[in-house]
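Lab notebook, bench 4. The sequencing result for the construct came back, and we need a structural model before the next group meeting so we can plan mutations. Quick request posted to the team channel:

Model the 3D structure of this chain.
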Amino acid sequence: MKTENQTVNPQFYFQPFTTIPEMKWLIFWTFLILYLLSLIGNVSVAFIIYTVSSLHTPMYFFLANLAFLEIAYSCTIAPLTLANLASVRRISISLSGCGTQLFLFILLGGSDCILLAIMAYDRYVAICRPLSYPLIMTWRMCMSLMVGTWAMCGFLSFQLCLLILTLTFCDNNMAIRNFFCDFPALMKVACGDTHAQQLGLFIT
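Done. Here's the predicted structure in token form:
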């Protein structure tokens, strides 16, 4: 049951790193250069692996997937951050927009971490069991590992996004002390009990 002062369509805005215009532009250009370098580097890696047939091996397959995850991961956060830094007026984001950003952030970040573990296992098998490597790391196994990674992280992300949508807010415009929609930052501006959300975040 909703209380009288609970809003049904909250809007959030990110507090700037600084209010000094010169510093904001310095941070903007630094972020933009790093963002573009990240995109160029990861697109180059993925393109080279895709075009060079001798690199079509499990190790480079995982590396290309890692490059794709890094591209998507940075595109989830950086564009809105750059827009906020460059804009004179503060840019707001809805609760559903926050949920979408956080879903992608957790999905891609979690997949990134698990993929690094898979790549470590791939190198372990290649070094410690070289004769069995072609039998263990088949293309079917590689695809199964990637699909399993996406499925598991997607499930966890979906659960956390459901918890976000159950948060209650008592104001239409709230500042998030971060440069993206992070779960702890959202819980700080929520009104009401957040124990269920904290437990869900801890378990995840």
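Strands lie at 11-14, 92-94, 173-176.
Will bring this to the meeting.
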